[in-house]
Specification:
Largest sheet: 6 strands, mixed
Structural class: mainly beta
Strand content: 25-35%
Length: 588
């Protein structure tokens, strides 16, 4: 299945009830509550391995491995795992009713364990919900509501006890795993044992004769020839976070179609063979029989033309691309298949001036996500009076000139740039906060819950209290549907933050525990969206939540509007609270 996987889209939101339109008989109808996984997109989770024919009886031994290809934690709450004999056949399904976070770049293994403790390699059981997986045919898939996230066709292993695995040479992605030629039987690692790698990266599939198409497998470059070598080797495709966009020249002096360029930096050894350089409308796949390699920490120039007398005097580019970088602003991305490796959103480009990431922030892929990390280049290059540092270190952006106007954000559903849906005063409501968690330290487990009363983006929203503030920034649209909740937390790692559901964004300041004057505020471009003031001390391990009957920015100002979460209402590893879910009523 085709998929557009984008970093940071693994956000699960608990959505409220929404009033529908008039029905055909003139009566009001209600839409069903969207599932907790409503923000997941096709390709947010990828099926990478399955054991459909264990040795002996199948019951209790089958498993399915899923991979999170993004750079954000994805929660399986609300996701449905299903199987069917074919696309037209009646399916059997299992829906996750509790949180099961999958960290960025990691795997989770689901098994059909019917009784007793879980085997070491299984993270959660789906019991008998799926019955037996087809040993030689059938369909296995994931969906959220009616939106399919990934599907694969089940095929037979060479013998019982052998798992089927997606080629470990390739970046796992939901479009690529449709190609059966990219699957193979897991190699034998323990003589006589079950063959598979549940919970870890797969081994490479054996090379297959290519009928004269050297270095190509199903249309994907998988081998390349290193400099000075006589035989090719496997391409090391970058994974999310291993290749970073550090500088963009969208409006060079002269002809844009020959002078535009990008600079990228590798954080691990990678090859650019098969990488797609794209905008929100088109893309160019980088192809070469020779390895276009970068060492960790090395930068490369990608340009429209190679000839220095044409491109404005650039140093030698590693590769060329043909997509247009719009002068009015837009998005530029790097992808392997449908997996987004990195992206950047830039505003209107100055004539002859590149936009670059501040030098200290070029070592981490998250560095270019924040607008204040970018600034205009000041050093000249080439022979046309352009400013930029292609192939050289960027400058350090200072507060006086940091930040590039944002034309919009990348919509997580369409993958295209659009204008921000800016929240107005009263459109966001502070509904719950945990100031003193017991299960984990405060610096990891504090959180704040926000309710959206209309569809908005949180890009540029500031969360603050009496001690600090954090601006929520991302090249992706931080979208909230009307009636949905978002959890903002000190840590996005569910194994560290007390088992929170998917975290929408993080903040860096602490929430006060003791009695005194405290305040939480949401603001946008200097406009106050909502605020909550309180003086009481926090109860260890218990969140403060807004009465479920009070759902607007005025009601949460009233005395007694907040109360401790009732006993027995817990989340994660045991603290009391309803992060991402509807609050309880406060006792009279």
């Amino acid at each position: 299945m085709a998929a557009w996987a984008v970093r940071g889209w693994g956000v699960g939101l608990g959505l409220g009830w929404a009033l529908g339109v008039l029905g055909g008989c003139g009566l009001p109808t209600w839409e069903e509550e969207p599932p907790a996984c409503a923000a997941l997109f096709p390709g947010a989770l990828v099926i990478t391995e399955y054991l459909n024919d264990p040795t002996g009886a199948d019951t209790g031994k089958e498993y399915v491995e899923l991979h999170n290809p993004s750079r954000e934690t994805v929660d399986l709450l609300g996701v449905t795992l299903f199987t069917a004999r074919d696309e037209a056949a009646q399916e059997r399904a299992y829906t996750f009713t509790t949180a099961l976070p999958v960290d960025a770049g990691t795997f989770v293994v689901l098994g059909d364990v019917r009784d007793g403790p879980l085997p070491e390699h299984v993270d959660q059981t789906y019991g008998d919900a799926l019955g037996a997986l087809g040993n030689s045919a059938g369909l296995l898939g994931l969906r959220c509501g009616t939106r399919v996230l990934d599907t694969v066709a089940l095929t037979a292993p060479e013998k019982s006890g052998v798992a089927r695995t997606y080629d470990g040479r390739l970046v796992p992605e939901a479009e690529g795993n449709d190609d059966l030629s990219r699957w193979c039987d897991a190699p034998e690692t323990v003589p006589g044992g079950t063959r598979g790698s549940p919970g870890s990266a797969n081994a490479p599939c054996p090379a297959v004769a290519d009928a004269g198409a050297s270095g190509v497998d199903g249309g994907r470059v998988v081998t390349c020839l290193p400099p000075g070598a006589l035989s090719p080797r496997e391409v090391q495709s970058p994974r999310p976070g291993q290749l970073i966009i550090t500088e963009v020249m969208a409006n060079p002096r002269g002809d844009d179609t020959v002078g535009e360029w990008l600079e990228v930096r590798a954080t691990a050894p990678v090859d650019l063979n098969g990488l797609t350089v794209g905008t929100d409308t088109s893309g160019t796949r980088l192809e070469s029989e020779r390895c276009m390699s970068l060492a960790s920490g090395e930068t490369a120039l990608l340009a429209r033309r190679r000839e220095s007398d044409v491109n404005g005097g650039l140093p030698e580019p590693l590769a060329t691309f043909s997509v247009d970088l719009r002068n009015t602003g837009g998005a530029v991305s790097l992808r392997v298949g449908s997996v987004l490796i990195d992206s950047a959103v830039y505003g209107p480009a100055q004539d002859g001036v590149a936009t670059q990431v501040s030098a200290p922030l070029t070592e981490d892929a998250r560095g270019n996500d924040v607008l204040t990390s970018w600034c205009a280049a000041t050093e000249p290059y080439g022979d046309k009076g352009n400013l930029g540092t292609p192939g050289r270190p960027n400058r350090v952006c200072v507060s006086a000139d940091a930040g590039v106007s944002q034309a919009g954000c990348i919509d997580r559903t369409t993958g295209q740039s659009r204008a921000l849906r800016v929240p107005a005063a009263g459109s966001l409501v502070l509904t719950e906060f945990m100031a003193d968690p017991s299960a984990v330290p405060d610096a990891l487990g504090e959180w704040v819950e926000v309710l959206a009363l209309r569809e908005v983006d949180l890009n540029g929203v500031t969360l603050s209290n009496e001690t600090g503030s954090t601006v929520l920034e991302s090249p992706l649209c931080l979208s909230m549907k009307a009636g949905s909740h978002a959890v903002l937390a000190r840590s996005e790692d569910a194994s560290l933050n007390g088992g929170l559901p998917s975290v929408f964004g993080t903040f860096g300041f602490g929430l006060g525990n003791g009695a005194g004057a405290h305040v939480l505020k949401l603001a946008m471009r200097g406009i106050l969206l909502d605020s909550v003031a309180f003086t009481s001390a926090a109860i260890p391990g218990v969140s403060s939540q807004l009465d479920a009957r009070a759902r607007d920015a005025s009601a949460n100002d009233a005395a007694g509007a907040f109360c401790p979460t009732p006993a027995g209402v817990t989340y994660g590893v045991g603290d009391r609270g309803t992060p991402g879910r509807e609050n309880r009523r406060c006792a009279p």
